[in-house]
Specification:
The chain is mainly beta and 167 residues long. The chain contains two helices and ten strands. Strands 1-2-3-4-5-6-7-8-9-10 form a ten-stranded antiparallel barrel. It is globular, with a radius of gyration of 21 Å. InterPro entries: DUF6265 (IPR046232).
Length: 167
C-alpha cells in the first residue's frame, strides 16, 4: 500500500494549481471608486483637428458612478454624430460603453477597463470585431491621446485621436 503520491502525481497537481493561480491572476481586474475618480480629467470638450472634418468629444459627469460622452464631426456647417458613450463603475469593474451611430442596432458594446498605468487607461473587449482595445492617455490637463486598435481584414490596425481641451 502506497501512502505518498508519486512524483508524477505531485507534478500534475503542481501544474494544475499553477494554472489555476495564473488564470486567477490574469483575470484580476478589480477597480475601486478611487480608480474611477482618476478619470475625472475627461470632463470637458476635446478637439481633434483634421483636414476632413474636426472631431469633438464632449464629456459630462452624470453621477458619482457615471460619465457621459458624445463625439461628433464638424465640417463647415454640417454636424455628424459619431457615438454616445457611458463610462461607469459597476461593482469592481469600470466600463466604457459606446453606442456608435448606425452600428450594432444602436446597442452598447462593453469594453472593460483592464489596466491603469499612470494616466493611461486601457479598455478591452476581445470578442468585438473592431476595435478590441480603446486607450485614453491623459498627457496633461489639456492634452489627451486616444487610440483604438485591433485586427481588421487579418491585419493589426491602430487609429490615433490626438485631442486638445477647448473647454
Amino acid at each position: 500500500m502506497r501512502i505518498y503520491p508519486s512524483l508524477s502525481e505531485l507534478c500534475k497537481n503542481a501544474v494544475f494549481f499553477l494554472f489555476l493561480a495564473l488564470c486567477a491572476f490574469a483575470g484580476q481586474t478589480t477597480f475601486t471608486q478611487k480608480d474611477f475618480e482618476k478619470l475625472k480629467p475627461i470632463v470637458g470638450t476635446w478637439l481633434n483637428k483634421r483636414s476632413r472634418g474636426d472631431i469633438y468629444e464632449t464629456w459630462t459627469r452624470k453621477s458619482e458612478k457615471e460619465f457621459a460622452g458624445m463625439s461628433y464631426t464638424l465640417a463647415g456647417a454640417d454636424t455628424t454624430p459619431l457615438e454616445k458613450v457611458r463610462l461607469y463603475i459597476q461593482g469592481n469593474e469600470i466600463v466604457y460603453a459606446p453606442v456608435a451611430a448606425g452600428q450594432n442596432d444602436d446597442k452598447e458594446v462593453l469594453f472593460k477597463l483592464k489596466t491603469i498605468e499612470g494616466n493611461r487607461f486601457v479598455f478591452e473587449n476581445l470578442q468585438h470585431d473592431f476595435p478590441k482595445r480603446i486607450v485614453y492617455d491623459f498627457r496633461s490637463n489639456d492634452s489627451l491621446y486616444a487610440h483604438i486598435e485591433g485586427e481588421m481584414q487579418s491585419r493589426q490596425r491602430r487609429i490615433d485621436y490626438p485631442y486638445r481641451r477647448i473647454h
